[in-house]
């Protein structure tokens, strides 16, 4: 199929795309049962499953994820020797919150100045319809295999899909992922987003001394929690951060200040270890060395 032919087919499919998007946006698929009945999400999931079945995907089904939501999965086998591309999208949407703050009803697709408004119209139901319209335009003229996933609780961050993928890796094997949960740089300007940044929320606790140490006396060599958190190397899983390791090396065993107060460092005895346990006849600590 030539580029022109493909463009013509897509142009002819646009009214259908708008009708599809209008239907899909009208379903308030907020994946939070405290705000909307879960049946709305099921309705959206079934809409997506039916549409992609009709567009030629095989075995399109709802897959329960550990957070109780239902993703939509399907596939299409590749031609011999061809790669497989995974198409990603999500059908749940952010809650609209204050309906009165909207210029037009959030779950009614409304056109203003040539743009379509409504909750999920862009993120990410518009992209679901994009996948759908692309499949319809290409028909059987597909040079690759497909896997399809419409996530069910992406906006809630409940982790349902993450947990599902870990348990069913084989259902997501692909040579490339097409994640269309993105936007374009400007109206009318096709855009390919080549990298995305995620986020991780975590609490890091660094234990150093048991109390404060006088900066003038101990500042340099004393372990410092803030310095330990400043990365100076590539952390390795299961290992202390290199900065923490370095701090450990800088504090000779037995030289840690017992109470952390300022003054002359007093080496305190270490608990006995297997290698250094004194003979039974002697008491431990044998004596506290003076500095
Ligand atoms: Zn999104």
UniProtKB/TrEMBL annotation:
The keyword Hydrolase applies. Pfam families: Peptidase_M20. The keyword Lyase does not apply. GO terms for molecular function: metal ion binding; peptidase activity. Gene3D superfamilies: Zn peptidases. InterPro entries: Cyt/Met_Dipeptidase, Peptidase_M20. It comes from the Bacteria. Keywords: Hydrolase, Metal-binding, Protease. Residues 273-285 have a biased composition (Low complexity). Residues 231-291 are annotated as: Disordered. Coiled coil: none annotated. NCBIfam families: PRK07907.1. PANTHER family: BETA-ALA-HIS DIPEPTIDASE, SUCCINYL-DIAMINOPIMELATE DESUCCINYLASE. This is Peptidase family M20/M25/M40. It comes from Streptomyces atratus.
């Amino acid at each position: 199929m030539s580029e022109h032919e493909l463009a013509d087919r897509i142009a002819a499919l646009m009214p259908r795309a708008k009708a599809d998007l209008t239907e899909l946006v009208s379903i308030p698929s907020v994946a939070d049962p405290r705000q909307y009945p879960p049946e709305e999400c099921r309705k959206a999931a079934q809409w997506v499953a039916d549409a992609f079945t009709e567009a030629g995907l095989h075995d399109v089904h709802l897959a329960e994820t550990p957070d109780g939501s239902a993703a939509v999965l399907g596939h299409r086998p590749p031609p011999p020797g061809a790669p497989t591309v995974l198409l990603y999208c999500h059908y749940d949407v952010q809650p609209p919150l204050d309906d009165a703050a909207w210029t037009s009803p959030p779950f009614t697709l409304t056109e203003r100045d040539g743009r379509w408004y409504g909750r999920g119209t862009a993120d990410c139901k518009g992209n679901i319809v994009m996948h759908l319209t692309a499949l319809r335009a290409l028909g059987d003229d597909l040079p690759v295999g497909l896997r399809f996933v419409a996530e069910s609780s992406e906006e809630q961050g409940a982790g349902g899909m993450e947990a599902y993928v870990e348990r069913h890796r084989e259902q997501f094997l692909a040579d490339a992922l097409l994640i269309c949960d993105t936007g374009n740089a400007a109206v009318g300007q096709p855009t390919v987003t080549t990298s995305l940044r995620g986020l991780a929320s975590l609490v890091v606790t660094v234990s150093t001394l048991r109390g404060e140490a006088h900066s003038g006396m101990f500042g340099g060599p004393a372990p410092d929690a803030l310095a330990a958190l400043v990365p100076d190397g590539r952390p390795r899983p299961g290992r202390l951060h290199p900065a923490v390791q370095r701090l450990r090396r800088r504090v000779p065993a037995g030289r840690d200040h017992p109470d952390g107060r300022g003054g002359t460092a007093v080496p305190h005895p270490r608990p006995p270890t297997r290698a250094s346990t004194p003979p039974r006849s002697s008491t431990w600590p044998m004596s506290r060395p003076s500095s």
